[in-house]
């Protein structure tokens, strides 16, 4: 072995890419397990260690630890090969090879996984010494993963990928969060000491306590430092879960039970926790929160169970994503139509709340903006809604009530929007030219092109328009008092209500039957943008026509609905991990306990990030326009710096 390795270390000889070496069992057998043989083994390992270390600079060198034996099955001429002797030889090899370099970590890797596999499978051995074929196949598969994954870099839950090096932007982010944590701790200590000095003291003459007047209001600086301190700790957890290779990941395997049993469980919980709504209008705040909540929980179960491989489930989940976008169209149109508030403060508040977490994750996790595709989608659609309604002539409810002509004007605006959507949907070249322009390309490119963004946008291209149109029709009917929205009252007269309910149930079931009979994903995706609104409208009517259904909501689902955006984004790294391709394993060997613990942490983190975002939005986006413009200038400078640093990083990578 020494002679063979010595030849490979010579410069003129072609070197192997991978070398797998190991020895011990034969030494134990030939020398009958004597202590002298162990001493000689140590000397031999010591003599080849420098050669292995030298070779490891150009090749991958693995020293295979000896597998345990099943002593009861060993033949008489192998009885001296005991697990005690094997452990002694393995310990000798590990200690010598790991100490072969004085000033740095050894480049020779210990291939100990085969030993772990053998501990599970040695009882299946025929002679107590040689492992079954399945064990060798598993070891070989892991070895191939070790060598290939660092080159192929698969985006799933596979093992053995080297940790990506920290980028300059990540290092700067780490420094910022570290300074925020230190700053908050200093602020906290000073504040605490001040509080102690201002404690009530006893008046010696009267024996009564004097209470000093203390200003208990929290300063914006304290909120800012506290928020960034908490966010820094949370981001450290994100990085450890999905970048540091600290925790294991496992692949998803879909079965019907892993998807449908949790669905039934959460539906039962949701029905159990029900309360009366504060108002009984169609799609009131509690109801939309409830809608977002149960949809988000279903989507989470869909992702963790790997149900995308089952086409009927995939098609129904596509409707849930479309329903989120429908709510975007409905909610923002209603706000602008009723309030008429087209000010910059409203726009900045919405954009900040939508994008804050994603921007931070893009920096910390070194991922492109388009990777979190849903946020770019709702952001772009919000801007489309805003521009459509804010452009001249600005038509709002107050103006339209005086003259029906304005209603016609708004419908023309919506018709023009639909025309633009159709043009971009069927003109991929024009779409890609628009979003390939710098700096838009930095936001919407994924793997060097904007095809993924075009595909995502096109998949639900009409549903936001449908949401805006529904809001317009509903608010027009509400203004003319066509609807009965009192508590317990059906939305229309009994005959019309029953007829619409029947049509809605039939439409809902018809869509489900069609989606369940889908055979080709591409064909069904092509029809989805036009037909998804059928099931969405059917659900809205079923949920809102009966007065008793409109008067109650599930507080369980509504609670999750309030943090639905954070849940959707956080799942990428601290619940699913491996960028959604795998499942995070915090507790190996116990899947049920692991999913309980990781889910609890995941939900707590999402809730905390929601609170942090709300707190920071109040400080960073003030209502005063002059202050807001200064903040926007700072934010613009920040993004310019980010673009420059990103360009430098891209050049260094290439």
List the topology elements.
Layout: H1 2-9, E1 18-21, H2 25-30, H3 35-55, E2 60-64, H4 83-98, E3 109-111, H5 113-121, H6 133-152, H7 168-197, E4 201-202, E5 209-210, H8 220-242, E6 248-251, H9 256-272, E7 274-276, H10 285-305, H11 311-339, H12 344-364, H13 374-390, H14 397-400, H15 405-425, H16 428-435, H17 440-444, H18 451-459, H19 463-479, H20 494-516, H21 521-544, H22 547-550, E8 552-554, H23 555-562, H24 564-574, E9 582-585, H25 591-620, H26 625-653
Parallel strand pairs: 1-2, 2-3
Antiparallel strand pairs: 4-5, 6-9, 7-8
Mind summarizing the main beta sheet? 3 strands, parallel
Main structural class:
mainly alpha
- Summarize model confidence as the mean pLDDT: 90
Low-confidence stretches: 201-215
So how many helices?
A: 26
Write out the strand line-up for the largest beta sheet, numbering strands in chain order: 1-2-3
Distance between the termini: 41 Å
Question: What best-fitting shape do the alpha-carbon axes yield?
Answer: elongated
Main location: membrane
Subcellular location: Membrane
Membrane topology: Multi-pass membrane protein
Pfam families: Cas1_AcylT
Task: Walk me through this protein's architecture.
This protein is mainly α and 654 residues long. It is built from 26 helices and nine strands. The protein has a three-stranded parallel β-sheet. Strands 4-5 form a two-stranded antiparallel sheet. Strands 6-9 form a two-stranded antiparallel ribbon. Helix 10 runs antiparallel to helix 11 (311-339) and helix 12 (344-364) crosses helix 25 (591-620). Keywords: Glycoprotein, Membrane, Transferase, Transmembrane, Transmembrane helix. Pfam families: Cas1_AcylT.
């Amino acid at each position: 072995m020494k002679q063979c390795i010595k030849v490979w270390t010579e410069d003129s000889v072609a070197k192997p890419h991978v070398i797998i070496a190991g020895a011990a069992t034969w030494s134990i057998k030939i020398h009958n397990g004597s202590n002298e043989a162990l001493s000689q083994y140590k000397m031999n390992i010591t003599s080849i260690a420098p050669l292995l270390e030298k070779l490891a600079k150009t090749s991958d060198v693995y020293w295979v630890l000896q597998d345990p034996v099943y002593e009861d099955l060993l033949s008489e001429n192998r009885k001296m090969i005991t697990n005690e002797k094997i452990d002694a030889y393995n310990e000798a090899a590990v200690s010598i090879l790991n100490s072969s370099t004085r000033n740095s970590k050894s480049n020779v890797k210990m291939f100990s996984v085969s030993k772990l596999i053998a501990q599970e499978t040695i009882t299946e051995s025929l002679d107590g010494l040689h492992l079954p074929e399945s064990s060798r196949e598993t070891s070989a598969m892991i070895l191939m993963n070790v060598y290939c994954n660092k080159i192929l870099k698969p985006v799933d839950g596979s093992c053995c990928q080297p940790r990506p090096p920290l980028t300059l932007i990540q290092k700067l982010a780490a420094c910022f969060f570290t300074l925020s944590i230190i700053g908050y701790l200093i602020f906290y200590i000073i504040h605490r000491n001040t509080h102690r000095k201002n404690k009530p003291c006893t008046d010696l003459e009267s024996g009564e306590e004097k209470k000093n007047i203390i200003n208990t209001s929290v300063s914006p600086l304290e909120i800012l430092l506290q928020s960034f301190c908490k966010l820094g700790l949370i981001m450290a957890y994100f990085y450890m879960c999905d970048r540091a290779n600290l925790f294991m990941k496992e692949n998803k395997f879909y079965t019907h039970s892993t998807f449908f049993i949790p669905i039934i469980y959460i539906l039962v919980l949701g029905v159990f926790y029900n309360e009366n709504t504060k108002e009984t209008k169609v799609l009131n705040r509690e109801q939309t929160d409830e809608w977002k909540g149960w949809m988000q929980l279903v989507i989470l179960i869909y992702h963790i169970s790997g149900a995308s491989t089952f086409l009927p489930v995939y098609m129904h989940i596509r409707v849930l994503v479309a329903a989120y976008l429908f709510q975007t169209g409905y909610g923002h149109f209603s706000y602008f139509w009723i309030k008429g508030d087209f000010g910059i403060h409203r726009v900045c508040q919405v954009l900040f709340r939508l994008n804050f977490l994603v921007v931070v994750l893009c920096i910390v996790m070194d991922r492109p903006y388009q990777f979190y595709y849903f946020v770019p989608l709702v952001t772009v659609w919000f801007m489309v809604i805003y521009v459509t309604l804010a452009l001249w002539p600005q038509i709002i409810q107050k103006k339209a009530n005086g003259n029906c002509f304005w209603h016609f004007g708004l419908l023309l605006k919506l018709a023009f929007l639909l025309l633009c959507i159709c043009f971009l949907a069927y003109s991929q070249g024009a779409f890609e030219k628009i979003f390939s322009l710098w700096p838009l390309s930095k936001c919407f490119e994924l793997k060097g092109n904007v095809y993924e963004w075009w595909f995502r946008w096109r998949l639900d291209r009409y549903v936001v328009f449908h949401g805006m149109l529904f809001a317009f029709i509903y608010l027009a009917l509400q203004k003319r008092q066509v609807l009965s929205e009192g508590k317990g009252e059906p939305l229309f007269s009994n005959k019309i209500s029953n007829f619409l309910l029947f049509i809605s149930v039939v439409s809902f079931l018809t869509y489900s039957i069609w989606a369940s009979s889908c055979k080709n994903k591409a064909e069904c995706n092509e029809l989805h943008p036009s037909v998804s609104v059928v099931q969405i409208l059917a659900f809205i009517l079923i949920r809102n026509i009966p007065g008793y259904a409109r008067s109650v909501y599930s507080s369980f689902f509504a609670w999750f609905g309030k943090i639905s955006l954070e849940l959707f984004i956080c799942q990428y790294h601290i619940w699913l991990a491996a960028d959604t391709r795998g499942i995070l394993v915090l507790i190996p060997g116990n899947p049920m306990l692991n999913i309980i613990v990781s889910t609890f942490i995941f939900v707590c983190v999402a809730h905390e990030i929601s609170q942090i975002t709300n707190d920071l939005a109040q400080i960073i986006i003030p209502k005063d326009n002059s202050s807001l413009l200064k903040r926007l200038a700072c934010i613009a400078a920040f993004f310019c710096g980010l673009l420059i640093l990103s360009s430098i990083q891209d050049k260094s990578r290439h």
